[in-house]
TrEMBL record:
SUPFAM superfamilies the UniProt entry points to: Subtilisin-like (SSF52743)
Annotated organism of origin: Massilia psychrophila
Signal peptide: 1-25
InterPro entries: PA_domain (IPR003137), Peptidase_S8/S53_dom (IPR000209), Peptidase_S8/S53_dom_sf (IPR036852), Peptidase_S8_Asp-AS (IPR023827), Peptidase_S8_Ser-AS (IPR023828), Peptidase_S8_subtilisin-rel (IPR015500), Peptidases_S8_3 (IPR034197), S8pro/Inhibitor_I9 (IPR010259)
Keyword Amino-acid biosynthesis attributed: no
Residue ranges annotated for the Inhibitor I9 domain, each copy included: 65-133
Entry similarity comment: Belongs to the peptidase S8 family.
Name recorded for this polypeptide: Peptidase S8 and S53 subtilisin kexin sedolisin
Keyword Glycoprotein tagged: yes
PANTHER family reported for this sequence: PROPROTEIN CONVERTASE SUBTILISIN/KEXIN
Length: 1077
């Protein structure tokens, strides 16, 4: 099953914005997460009189029952109570004390503005909604080899023993054999009470309050979950539904996964991949795939349900789940969730919760996202977690197309039976009217094999005018198709719809010719083989050149000879958009065609029985793809490494995995990344594969590791700049100091602004049991690298600091160069880290943000040139506001809707952008819509910007109407700015307001001044002062300072001043469409 993004989800930069204050908006409550200054219990190292440190020592867990911990939590509770005074307790939806110090609450704008002024509040975040990022891999990874990682922890029968893996996901289907704690006479996992108990009681560190009235046997009792749902394998199930969520009919308020009809299965799949039982038989569509095993098959498992059908995954739910998981004593957390369009911050509540989990010794694995290769950047950007890209493995479930000329084309398939030789016909030629004589819409419907429903669906005709449909002339003709194999092209409609169209026309089988997106094995309406685009062209050519072409389709088999690994095309690419000086993703792992536990199809009556406390014997299995599937591989492997090395920190485990990874294969992707200058989306470069494809057996003996911990992360957080927000108080930062991302001791080096040359320092620790002499080699495309010292001898347990000086040689400015730095000791240890570097003439902060009507800021600019430097200032300029009404909705392809501009679901504003414009920004705000004044309502308006050739130059498609598109130094011309109604929640219309800024040096406002040195030096830094005064209240202002080298803009800092006392914006992700295209 592929998980695809809506067409709107293009890469755009969204900066800090605000919500206008209105009287009506005061009465509407929205969910917020409020963070307080005191350190969460998981990270508290002392400093308050009478309250000793509570941060656990390496190798231990936070003991929630300890007196010191209880006393400190009571202290945090008192501080929270002080802040909450005056807020109705009924509106407080969650309180946090170990993963975060703060609370979640339903607040009005007035309450938020009051909290902003409260000295007891550190930060306030709108509760944003995220989405899920949706075997034979243990053998492919070598875990079962004679000297594999399983052997280092006692063999498969002990792999993961004593470890607890927590899954934050969509729930679990407890009846699946992957989660059983018994085995039958053959050693096969079973839930049958007659089986032999294969697991003892949960580890002593497990503190899920088992025996409490609401948690018998570790299960939180809610509809769909009973005490019998938990056992000695699946030791905990909890759920965290966001406030005011209506549970879908096919979903459950409990930790039970939604049914297949409710788009469930994701949580069961990820949980079984990380730590499901070994030896679970798997047969899909009648094809025997052998048996399944999780990475750590003896680990105990706990599900924390934070995602709900139709409701997404609320940040407040995630923080609550992390808060509980830390208290419960888990070892590893997996988070296969994130924004569909990618990106994000390192300072949002979810990231901070994971930071505190890491400080408590818990390893966090998170998916990079499925917006690759160029739709959206990698998500889950905190350096304290391992962000995982998806790669392929060597197993393919497929079949052959045997053409009448003897040619054989292997493809993806789940054919239960073979299809004997039959006539073959291209869909283009399978209609009553010649293909060339058809309208463009009918041509599309014909070659893509549309069903009758597809021929009238708005999403079936991307790039065509709104309201486009196909006629019956675009249908497959039964007189031409009956008994034949039809060659259909991939694209637009669901792949399974295509085989349904063939069946409807009495066809015997289908060959699906790919469009470059990748082959998928899935169940079809007729025997089907999915082949590559190139093979599809060859088969079509054969069919066109012969009077009686034929083909046969074989039965599906399991092949183990597929070249691998490649980074998957859907896997989101880096760099880290929150800080280009830290790598994301970190590593790749199998995430394509992964077989694992799933939820079954169920009837409404069966769901009702489960909700009433009844039982079921139904289970499911499925093969799906996504970075969601890759992340639990790393989570399970981390559990194995923690089992082998109990005192290792999460950073050490991450380092071992990264420094022993190997390069993926060249995927041939060369498209430029839209969100960074000078890099492509090539899967085998660091922005695609991270450090490379995981090789767990090497990770069990890495030689050296790069460690980091609480003090390092505090210094990093104290160095955060906008759009990240502070996560520590000024007093904390004064005590610890600050560093930039490039200085964090990561097992990678990423230097996004090399000013001629740059020296970077790292420290390694010898975790082997022998002294070794290591020698460095370094090679980076377009750069020279000098490592000091070039060699060192290091004893077990000792640490060594080294530096590497990177100097740009022949790599053009603003282009990334990639390579590796490797330490080898000659006795089997090869410690390799990826190095990424980009030279620039100037580095400047991307954003200065303020809410002061009069204010000043000093920024630091780095220079990579010698000579004169000039600054062009623009603004400050208030928004131009245009209010309008939209009276319809459309889910059609948005580029076509915008270009046509005729649909009542679209409001087009033509904007002239003069030459010399430094920045153009277009924004929408939830608070500026009709729904803002209706409790529980929300309009979903999207924003698309086209240039004069009707090419999309920016788009924003969050769930809701908080949207922004920012164009830096745009070309002169007339732009179409389109507001498109995706959903009005069944209301007939909405009123909305488009805010626009077209800012150039001719725009002068607020006495905006920029003072910078007139001369720059190579490798130097300069302090640049900015000031403004007497801005009007209640406005949003935008300005810019563009720094020029030889008359050419080398960098721009935006100045965003909001004088309307803004409340935080919620930037929610739209749900993924499943199975399309």
């Amino acid at each position: 099953m592929n998980q695809k993004l809506r067409p709107i989800s293009l890469a755009v930069m969204t900066l800090l914005a605000s919500i206008a204050f209105t009287a009506n908006a005061q009465e509407v409550r929205r969910s917020y997460i409020v963070q307080l200054p005191a350190t969460a219990a998981a990270s508290y190292e002392g400093g308050i009189a009478g309250l000793p440190a509570t941060k656990p020592a390496p190798g231990s867990h936070l003991d929630i029952s300890a007196t010191d911990v209880q006393n400190y939590i009571a202290y945090l509770e008192r501080k929270q109570n002080d802040v909450l005074a005056g807020i109705d307790p009924a509106n407080v939806t969650a309180r946090y004390d170990v993963a975060l110090n703060g609370f979640a609450a339903m607040l009005t704008d007035t309450e938020v503005r009051a909290l902003k002024k409260n000295a007891g509040v550190l930060s306030i975040h709108a509760d944003s909604m995220q989405q899920l990022h949706t075997s034979s891999t243990p053998a492919f990874l070598g875990l079962d080899q004679a000297n594999g990682l399983w052997s280092k922890v006692g063999g498969k029968g002990s792999a993961g023993e004593g470890m607890i893996i927590a899954m934050l996901d969509s729930g679990v289907w407890p009846e699946n054999a992957s989660f059983a704690d018994r085995v039958d006479a053959n050693g096969t996992p079973t839930h049958d009470a007659s089986g032999t108990l294969a697991y003892g009681p949960p580890p002593a560190k497990w503190r899920n309050y088992a025996g409490a009235s609401d948690l018998p046997n570790g299960c939180e009792l809610k509809p769909g979950i009973t005490a019998a749902s938990c056992n000695n394998k699946l030791i905990g199930i909890r759920s965290y539904a966001p406030a005011n969520l209506t549970i879908a009919a096919a979903d459950f308020p409990s930790g039970r996964d939604a049914t297949a009809e409710g788009s469930g299965g994701h949580g069961s799949h990820t949980l079984s991949t990380a730590g499901g039982n070994a030896g679970v038989p798997v047969t899909i569509n009648g094809i025997d795939l052998g048996s399944l095993s999780g990475m750590a098959p003896r680990a105990r498992l706990a599900m924390y349900k934070v995602c709900f059908t139709g409701g997404g995954c609320a940040g407040s739910s995630t923080v609550a789940a992390v808060n509980q998981a830390i208290k419960d004593g888990v070892d590893v957390i997996n988070y296969s969730i994130g924004p569909t369009a990618g990106g994000g911050l390192m300072s949002d509540p979810t990231a901070v919760a994971f930071l505190n989990a890491s400080n408590a010794g818990i390893f966090v694995a998170a998916s990079a996202g499925n917006a690759g290769p160029v739709t959206g950047p990698a998500a889950n950007l905190g350096p304290w977690n391992a962000t995982v890209a998806a790669s392929t493995h060597n197993r393919a479930i497929g079949a052959n197309v045997v053409a009448g000329n003897g040619a054989i084309y292997r493809g993806a398939s789940l054919n239960q039976v073979a299809l004997p030789s039959a006539a073959v016909i291209s869909a283009r030629n399978a209609g009553t009217v010649a293909y060339a004589a058809l309208t463009p819409a009918d041509q599309l419907a014909r070659r893509l094999c549309y069903t009758a429903a597809d021929r009238t669906a708005a999403a079936s005709f991307p790039g065509m005018p709104a309201g486009t449909t196909a006629s019956s002339m675009g249908a497959l003709d039964p007189d031409l198709v009956a008994g034949k194999i039809v060659i259909c092209d991939r694209g637009n409609n669901a792949r399974t719809n295509k085989s349904a169209a063939v069946l409807a026309a009495s066809g015997a089988g289908m060959v699906l010719a790919d469009n470059g997106a990748g082959l998928v094995s899935e169940v079809h309406s007729v025997p089907t083989v999915h082949i590559s685009a190139g093979d599809g062209n060859l088969l079509k050519a054969y069919a066109a050149a012969n009077a009686m072409p034929t083909a046969a389709l074989t039965k599906a088999l399991v092949f183990l000879d597929k070249p691998a690994p490649f980074v998957a095309g859907f896997s989101s690419r880096g760099p880290n958009v929150a800080d280009n000086n830290m790598l994301k993703p970190d590593i790749s792992a199998p995430g394509v065609d992964i077989a694992a536990a799933y939820t079954p199809s169920t009837t409404a009556d069966e769901v009702s029985t489960l909700k009433a406390g009844g039982a079921t014997s139904k289970t499911g299995l499925s093969i799906i793809s996504g970075t969601s599937m890759a992340s639990p591989h790393i989570a399970g492997l981390a559990a194995l490494l923690k089992q082998q090395y109990p005192t290792w920190t999460p950073a050490m485990i991450k380092s071992a995995l990264m420094t022993t990874a190997t390069d993926t294969l060249n995927d041939g992707v060369s498209a430029a990344l839209p969100w960074t200058k000078g890099a492509t989306a090539a899967g085998n470069k660091p922005f695609g594969q991270g450090a490379g494809h995981v090789t767990p057996n090497g990770a069990s003996d890495p030689g050296l590791v790069y460690n980091a911990g609480l003090a390092d992360y505090v210094r990093l957080g104290c160095g955060f700049t906008a759009p990240n927000v502070p996560i520590y108080t000024p007093a904390t930062c004064a005590a610890f100091g600050s560093i930039k991302g490039v200085a964090l001791n990561l097992p990678s080096i990423t230097a996004g602004a090399v000013l001629g040359s740059q020296t970077i320092t790292r420290t390694v620790t010898n975790v082997s049991d022998v002294s070794s002499t290591y020698t460095a080699t370094v090679a980076i495309d377009g750069y020279s690298g000098v490592v000091t010292p070039a060699s060192f001898t290091i004893a077990p347990g000792a640490s060594q600091t080294y530096s590497v000086k990177l100097t740009r040689t022949n790599k053009p400015l603003n282009a990334w160069g990639f390579g590796n730095l490797t330490w080898e000791d000659g006795i089997g240890h090869k410690v390799r880290i990826p190095v990424s570097a980009r030279g620039t003439a100037l580095s400047a902060p991307s954003l200065v943000y303020s809410e002061a009507a009069s204010g000043s800021k000093i920024i630091t600019v780095g220079t990579g040139f010698a000579g004169p430097m000039t600054v062009d200032k623009a603004g400050l300029k208030p928004a131009t506001r245009n209010t309008f009404t939209i009276s319809a909705v459309s889910n059609a392809a948005q580029q076509g809707l915008c270009a046509a501009g005729t649909s009542p679901a679209v409001r087009v504003t033509n904007v002239v952008v003069p030459a010399g414009t430094q920045v153009a920004r277009f924004s929408l705000y939830n608070a500026d819509t009709t729904a803002a004044a209706i409790p529980g309502a929300e309009d979903d308006l999207d924003l698309v910007v086209l240039n004069s050739t009707s090419t999309i130059v920016g788009a924003s498609g969050n769930d809701g109407s908080n949207e922004a598109v920012t164009l830096m130094n745009p070309a002169a011309g007339t732009y179409k700015v389109c507001v498109i109604a995706y959903s009005l929640q069944a209301r007939p219309s909405t009123t909305a307001t488009l805010s626009s800024w077209i800012v150039s040096s001719t725009d002068v406002g607020g006495n905006f001044k920029v003072l910078a040195p007139a001369t720059a030096y190579i490798g130097g830094t300069a302090s640049v002062g900015m000031s403004w005064s007497s801005l009007a209240a209640g406005q949003r202002y935008l300005g810019a300072a563009s720094f020029k080298v030889d008359g050419v803009v080398a960098g721009t800092t935006l100045v965003d001043v909001q004088t309307n006392d803004p409340v935080p914006l919620a930037l929610n992700s739209k749900p993924l469409e499943v199975g399309a295209e």
